[in-house]
Amino acid sequence: MSTSLADVATLLREARDVTLLGHVNPDADAIGGALALGLALRARGADVRVSFAEPAELPESLRILDAEGLVVPPAELPESEPLLVAVDTPAVERLGVLGERVAATKRAGGSVLVIDHHPSNTEYGTHNVIDVEAEASVVLVLRILDELGHELDANIARCLYAGLLTDTSGFRRAGGDTHRMAARLVEAGVDANVVSYELMDAHPFAWLPMLANVLSGARLESDGAQGMGLVHAVVTREAASTVRFEEVESVIDVVRATSEAEVAIVLKETEPRTASQCWTVSLRAKSAIDVSAVAKACGGGGHRLAAGCTIDGTADEALDVLRKALADAPRL
Asked: Which parts of the sequence belong to the DHHA1 domain (predicted)?
């Protein structure tokens, strides 16, 4: 059950020491939401830090959001804090090794605030602000800031805008309220052109040969995804070795543009969890298949049109698992 915004505002007004966490491999929604709330709480007099379990550093494309240096590595976090906030993180496991802090905070009598929009959220906080209809977690952060009566400045607005931009695929999946929110953030000082370029368009030259290599192996299965078309591509560790994390993550946005396919899949090779290969999987659907059900069947989660999971085995074995899950996935 979601905690009322009034109760959350009371909790935050009294906060004097806060750690805000994003999920592993954080995106702009997780980091943007954590930083926006962290900036507001620091302005209100609290000691604040923002962190995540991995990778070791904030992705380069997201560094424009941390204008005031709130992000710290896990090793620099205090032993405990009276208030722990998890943003855009549906389950404790998605916090990686920092998930241990949730139970530790509760044992010490502290509070855990969870702010999220994923349908799979397990409500693991002592306070939970969950809205699966919200198009990004930053939408909920802005509601909290409004309840606090905290005025937006350019830095806070930039963090919120980044989360909106990326979680709606450049506002392609945004409703009217979200567009109005974006306009409000621009009026608060966001340079939309700069943020859009840095987060969605800017890539080093090495991205081009990597992309050419990966796309040369892309395959279209016209009868896949319940006859609506499946396109998939594979990013091996060797192919990814020349580029940043951001470039690897961007491949799905190219592959999903295939007009003949309802569903797009990109397998990204990662450190093996066992003796076999291991793949993190990005799933995207246009409008007709619930890929969150596919991801959930494979131990992951996400949204109906954008989800992910991790699968062990060869690329062909992983694709077979995904094909079977797609065959049983509910239609929208």
From this structure: 243-326
